[in-house]
Design brief:
The chain is mainly α and 149 residues long. It is built from 4 helices and 3 strands, in the order αββααβα. The protein has a single domain, classed as Butyryl-CoA Dehydrogenase, subunit A, domain 3 (Up-down Bundle), CATH 1.20.140. It is 62% helix and 4% strand. It has a 3-stranded antiparallel sheet, with no helix packed on it. The chain is elongated.
């Protein structure tokens, strides 16, 4: 059933995964020396600036969205949630690495503003984990009901 709580968590995970394309990780004003860096040439750092970030954002969002409709096959749905959570974990680590490298390369007098997009990889990971937890609860409930028959 699509109205289960894990479907809501998967939808939120997918929205957070795709929301990273709209919310920048870092931003800088025009004329700021930080815009001399290649990643900040358009004044924002988002997943489009790094192919690894782009691929992991798309992967975690698509897998979470596909897992919503696999409610009849809970073991597969749980494995997909785990895979999406791992992709989100890798995305969180890669995002932290890219931001750290960018701040280390910052020219003198350059400053950046952290955006809301930095929280979205972690939110995606948490929502995927919660969905997997509730899918596991459903599977255990179904197995216990089968034992009673």
């Amino acid at each position: 059933m699509i109205q289960r709580i894990q479907s809501i968590f998967l939808l939120l995970a997918s929205a957070a995964g795709f929301g990273q394309f709209a919310a920048p990780y870092l931003s800088a004003e025009a004329g700021n020396p930080a815009t001399s860096l290649p990643a900040l040439s358009d004044n924002v750092l988002n997943p489009f600036d790094n192919p690894g970030l782009l691929g992991l954002c798309a992967l975690s969002g698509i897998v979470s969205l596909v897992a919503i409709f696999l409610y009849r096959n809970r073991p597969l749905q749980m494995r997909l949630c785990g895979g999406a959570a791992i992709a989100s974990l890798l995305l969180t680590v890669l995002t932290a690495f890219v931001v750290f490298q960018l701040t280390q390369q910052m020219p003198a007098g350059g400053n950046v503003h952290f955006g809301a997009g930095l929280a979205l990889p972690a939110a995606t990971m948490v929502f995927d984990w919660l969905a997997a937890r509730f899918i596991r609860k459903d599977e255990n409930l179904v197995r216990s009901m089968d034992r009673l028959r």
